[in-house]
Amino acid sequence: MATTKPEHADESLEDSSVEEEETEQKIPNKFMDFTNVLASLESQRNADKLGQVPPVVKRRIKALKKLQLEATNIEAKFFAEVHALECKYHKLYVPMYEKRHSIVNGAYEPTEEESQWPSDDEEENLGNQLKTKAKIDEETNKTPEIIPKSPENTDKPDPLGIPNFWLTIFQNVNLLSEMVQPPDEPILGHLKDIKVDCSENPMSFTLSFHFSPNQYFTNSVLTKEYFMKCEPEEDDPFNFEGPEIYKCKGCTINWNKGMNVTLKTVKKKQKHKSRGVVRTVTKTVQNDSFFNFFAPPELPENAKGEEIDDELRQLLTTDFEIGHYIRERVVPRAVLFYTGEAIEDEDDDYEDDDDLEDTTEDTDSDEKDNDKTAKDANCKQQ
Questions:
Q1: Which region holds residue 63: left if phi is over 0, alpha if psi is between -120 and 50, else beta?
Q2: Extended beta strands in the chain, E state
Q3: What share of the chain is helix, strand, coil (3-state, %, to 5)?
């Protein structure tokens, strides 16, 4: 008679018990504890587990989902009214933005009263240094040295307005500075103002970039329009989180001859296969430039999220984020981005954690997770 080793016997028993448990799970249990079913739904969210819920409970769950849809529709109306309220109050900001434009471009010189503002730390430190020096000179009975003004400084006229106001902002904001290439900078030096126009119907907003006359293009204004929707998707209503940008439209830039910084000419040598003759081919290809911002990729009509190419989706998502950021942050707080204070405030929102390790693998995995959770080609308006 064959004998079985103890450990093998245990393994056989263990396998047998598993089979018995699986068999028991397949048998419908009318007396299953309803609390355990809910706990299973909460922890596993498994459709198979949901299938074990009694039909009468399924019916009640469907009723709750209808109530949830009603709540979602009310939430959509709330966000629509918030957008209308933003458009209403935006008109109240316009006079201040116009005055800012006049000061920046030298059309208006603020009065002494309008210019009163607490001294910056740099000015306070300078004042303290002068007081300390005067005290030392007094204690040592030295006459303070009077340095005459340099003729160069006295003869130099005061600058008009605030030179390179918007260019400096673009250079300070990381999201924008990554787009700006060296050939873009002299063009952005002609940027006089960025205005936001808000529309309720259709729900949208337009960014208008105003330029002074320049040698690069004939346009005085370049526009970028963003269209939003504020209603739950029919096939996925419970994923609604508020208004979202779903498409945008740029404008045509009328470049002067030889001044188009969005294109570059490349030369490539080609060798004939049989004759061995070498020829040089000149091609015009797209060049990295901020001004590609006004020629966004087009989204196919009636295209659903799963039908959009990954590269196109990423381009559109980034574009929407930039437009939203300019509207919500840059334009309303332009002077603080010029001085860098707004950048410091945003940096303060993040703090270093010594417990976190800087690893390339973690960064890569985070980026992949972000790509999975990002909505298809949209940027939420918070």
A1: alpha
A2: 191-199, 204-211, 221-229, 244-249, 263-271, 278-286
A3: 50, 15, 35
Location of structure tokens 């901020």: 290
Would you state the structure tokens that stand for residue 360, as one six-digit string? 């390339």
Sign for the CA dihedral angle at 212, 217, 220, 223 comes to: negative
Decide: 169 and 337 in contact? Cβ < 8 Å. Answer: yes
Residue type, 242: G
Rg over CA atoms, the chain: 33
Report whether 232 contacts 73 (CB < 8 A). yes
Are the CB atoms for 293 and 322 separated by under 8 Å?
A: yes
**Environment class of residue 168 by beta-carbon count within 10 Å: exposed (0-12), middle (13-18) or buried (19+)?**
middle
Beta strands 221-229 and 204-211, pairing class: antiparallel
The one-letter code for the residue type at 58 is K
Cα(175)–Cα(349) distance, rounded to whole angstroms?
Answer: 16
pLDDT in tens, 277-325: 888 888 889 999 999 999 998 877 666 655 677 888 888 889 999 999 9
Dist CA 225 CA 245 (whole Å): 10
